[in-house]
């Protein structure tokens, strides 16, 4: 397929298939070449007296490339001639190539001379030669064209291979003036003849048929069956279908002539790139409500290209429908403007004018170009349909009209549907009568690309408007209020109303995501360890010889040999779990515990899978009197185990890294910022400052040490932050990445570059200096100037990089530097130390203390404010992520004075928050939600966190409990409540006795009453007696045992 993609090899095709060069096409196009060169020599060919075109060596199988040298070969000869030099001079065409290619080209000499008056001169390069003498001969011919000859070349094509390098070397030493003739070749390729147009139409037929008969049914099947299929899988299946049109598409096209211009592109799920360089990623196809799916196919037939792109809408809302219909009209206007005599700029202007009329709010989202010419090259750069191209459209030209709307947004909390793009592309042949849409087989009418999967009989229910939450317990006061009080209440009411609406939306969104099974993938805290493939020795012969039965450590093979029953048994060090050495006065015991199934490893362990029925050694101990040897052996084993573990850990970290493209170094002077530190730092004790440079597709940080280099690609940057030094001691640039990269031997997702604006250490041992000390004032002024200077340098760097990101090639990444809002910041403890946490436009960050805190707002499910109460000086914040398998982030010890500001910020970012009086254990809560999502949804979703609702329910239950109190129960008096517990007990006992005495007094005689009175006087004793003595005396006389007054009184339960 590589031969087909890159024009094929003339040598192989001619010899293997017997296919010859079409002499008629060659003669006709050779005449066109010389005529175009003569007519536009000064305007397009730079006044060239000769034209040299060198075709580089054949490309690799997986590489798709479009070169003007290859296009000239295909256009004039029918296929590509790699490693071939063509030099056009007046009246002659020189070829320098291998012997086999010369044999093919010999048949061109006679017709070229008779029909064109051009001599075809063939120069043979043998394998053992570098072609230098032949090149010098050709250069002498060029020099003979005029006194100061000008040689036309393709200046932008890179030098490849030793043959081409030799030509460049001799050309440089010849001192010939060189000009770029790419514009002349582009003009020559622009107008196609009927045979070329026929190939374009077949390529377009391939693209449109694949879209209609394979891609659309495939998407419908995946969506209808709710299958999971990635964009890359769709791309691979579609490409295989397009490469075999007779078999899989039932088309009457030869399979050997069919190919693709680029791998098919499928995009959905909120990530859209409307450029031709876009690729299908590994994300699954996303087709929930309001989802957008973009499909682009580029069919190629006999080396001629075509393109078709369609956008499919799933349960589109009104704004999406309006945007698509406006884009469709804009594309139709652009196509209608492709008429002979019109300027190419008029095509884009027609599209822009139509869009401005249909939907003026979308004009700023229109792509910068309406497409370009297409043919042997996928994009003919000189025929770009942009507002600045003033070239005239001619009949026979072929265009790829490619128009899109990018970075559109709808009101949605789902990041996969919030941002979307629209794209339409068709291949157009310009005829005298008007444009001919050769990809019209694939429909783009709204009714054909819009899908609705809602039940037709279901009508959307009207959702009642939520009212501000109220617990119903607060009385309404009618009074004259201050103006500030009214504003405070109004703001709180608005916040409550907003939160009530967010609660409804959040519960619906969570329910929908849980029902779809979108639980997330977590961050690996539940990953199981695996011992991997462990082989110390392949056979017995590799075991080291030992005369004594002693424990040995084989560093080379990473094994430990243990004497067991008179035999040295090897164990790979990875099988060892722990090693202990217990020593006493005369002996030492070495205890080795092994990794076995059930002790930190599972049935996924490789040894257990290979030998499931084996018996594993769990532990072994050795006793020795040689304490010195045992200590040495244990130390060696621990060192070896640590080295192997560190190596495997680093290998595992590197295995999880995503393969990234190489950094493209800028040719000119790079944007640079010097003398920076990096965090996380490189390994080693000595730290070095480095330089940060901005290049074509990424940033590079490097120090004086060669291996201390970090590349950050722009496509891998998720968030970029610039934080100037205000109250901090550092100015910094921070990059939060999509995928981890290696910084030295550490895996990092956050990389920071900073410089210290003042010394972090001050002399506190000396005497205190006066505020009016001239030296002190001078130092403060110097620090202030240094801080302002460094902040200014960082600002200049940030501005230049931002301008770089605004270029068309990088604009779709949506990169910009975010500056934290200090006025919205608050103090808290996200890790182990207190830090100042600040919001940004898209994140919540803390970039001073390490480890850093970067929380993306769109990743947050909701926030629970814990330990919130009137008597609390601080509260905690629990951030729950949409990925329920990810640990909840806690920020502790936030001052209560920051509560209102945090609520206001959360409300402004449309983040639902709840309040609770205690901390919650979130891991079991999330596990319960994941285990039974249906029950969570049925129980009201997140409303179990609603503290106000729970308070009102508890108050209602208390009021209902009061109804069960007996009606004759009297309320305790104030005097009873005021007394202490001890006093109430004593008083109640005395009351009981008085009641008993009153019962006895009824029916007593005077004598009995007098005796009773004297008895009581004896019990009471003197007035000077203490209360304790009177109690003891009374207890003796009555014979009753009373509780000691020091004993705690019995508790009396009060009815509530």
From TrEMBL:
<dbReference type="InterPro" id="IPR013953">
    <property type="entry name" value="FACT_SPT16_M"/>
</dbReference>
<keyword id="KW-0804">Transcription</keyword>
<dbReference type="Pfam" id="PF14826">
    <property type="entry name" value="FACT-Spt16_Nlob"/>
</dbReference>
<feature type="compositionally biased region" description="Basic and acidic residues">
    <location>
        <begin position="953"/>
        <end position="965"/>
    </location>
</feature>
<feature type="region of interest" description="Disordered">
    <location>
        <begin position="453"/>
        <end position="474"/>
    </location>
</feature>
<keyword id="KW-0158">Chromosome</keyword>
<comment type="function">
    <text>Component of the FACT complex, a general chromatin factor that acts to reorganize nucleosomes. The FACT complex is involved in multiple processes that require DNA as a template such as mRNA elongation, DNA replication and DNA repair. During transcription elongation the FACT complex acts as a histone chaperone that both destabilizes and restores nucleosomal structure.</text>
</comment>
<dbReference type="GO" id="GO:0006281">
    <property type="term" value="P:DNA repair"/>
</dbReference>
<dbReference type="GO" id="GO:0006368">
    <property type="term" value="P:transcription elongation by RNA polymerase II"/>
</dbReference>
<dbReference type="InterPro" id="IPR011993">
    <property type="entry name" value="PH-like_dom_sf"/>
</dbReference>
<dbReference type="InterPro" id="IPR000994">
    <property type="entry name" value="Pept_M24"/>
</dbReference>
<dbReference type="Pfam" id="PF08512">
    <property type="entry name" value="Rttp106-like_middle"/>
</dbReference>
<dbReference type="InterPro" id="IPR013719">
    <property type="entry name" value="RTT106/SPT16-like_middle_dom"/>
</dbReference>
<feature type="compositionally biased region" description="Acidic residues">
    <location>
        <begin position="967"/>
        <end position="1008"/>
    </location>
</feature>
<feature type="domain" description="Histone chaperone RTT106/FACT complex subunit SPT16-like middle">
    <location>
        <begin position="826"/>
        <end position="916"/>
    </location>
</feature>
<keyword id="KW-0805">Transcription regulation</keyword>
<dbReference type="InterPro" id="IPR048969">
    <property type="entry name" value="FACT_SPT16_C"/>
</dbReference>
<comment type="similarity">
    <text>Belongs to the peptidase M24 family. SPT16 subfamily.</text>
</comment>
<feature type="domain" description="FACT complex subunit SPT16 N-terminal lobe">
    <location>
        <begin position="21"/>
        <end position="185"/>
    </location>
</feature>
<keyword id="KW-0234">DNA repair</keyword>
<feature type="compositionally biased region" description="Basic and acidic residues">
    <location>
        <begin position="1009"/>
        <end position="1023"/>
    </location>
</feature>
<dbReference type="GO" id="GO:0031491">
    <property type="term" value="F:nucleosome binding"/>
</dbReference>
<keyword id="KW-0539">Nucleus</keyword>
<dbReference type="Pfam" id="PF24824">
    <property type="entry name" value="PH_SPT16"/>
</dbReference>
<dbReference type="GO" id="GO:0035101">
    <property type="term" value="C:FACT complex"/>
</dbReference>
<protein>
    <recommendedName>
        <fullName>FACT complex subunit</fullName>
    </recommendedName>
</protein>
<dbReference type="Pfam" id="PF21091">
    <property type="entry name" value="SPT16_C"/>
</dbReference>
<dbReference type="InterPro" id="IPR029148">
    <property type="entry name" value="FACT-SPT16_Nlobe"/>
</dbReference>
<dbReference type="Pfam" id="PF08644">
    <property type="entry name" value="SPT16"/>
</dbReference>
<dbReference type="InterPro" id="IPR029149">
    <property type="entry name" value="Creatin/AminoP/Spt16_N"/>
</dbReference>
<dbReference type="InterPro" id="IPR036005">
    <property type="entry name" value="Creatinase/aminopeptidase-like"/>
</dbReference>
<dbReference type="InterPro" id="IPR033825">
    <property type="entry name" value="Spt16_M24"/>
</dbReference>
<keyword id="KW-0227">DNA damage</keyword>
<comment type="subunit">
    <text>Component of the FACT complex, a stable heterodimer of SPT16 and SSRP.</text>
</comment>
<dbReference type="Pfam" id="PF00557">
    <property type="entry name" value="Peptidase_M24"/>
</dbReference>
<keyword id="KW-0235">DNA replication</keyword>
<dbReference type="InterPro" id="IPR056595">
    <property type="entry name" value="Fact-SPT16_PH"/>
</dbReference>
<feature type="domain" description="FACT complex subunit SPT16 middle">
    <location>
        <begin position="551"/>
        <end position="701"/>
    </location>
</feature>
<feature type="region of interest" description="Disordered">
    <location>
        <begin position="948"/>
        <end position="1056"/>
    </location>
</feature>
<dbReference type="InterPro" id="IPR040258">
    <property type="entry name" value="Spt16"/>
</dbReference>
<keyword id="KW-0175">Coiled coil</keyword>
<dbReference type="GO" id="GO:0006260">
    <property type="term" value="P:DNA replication"/>
</dbReference>
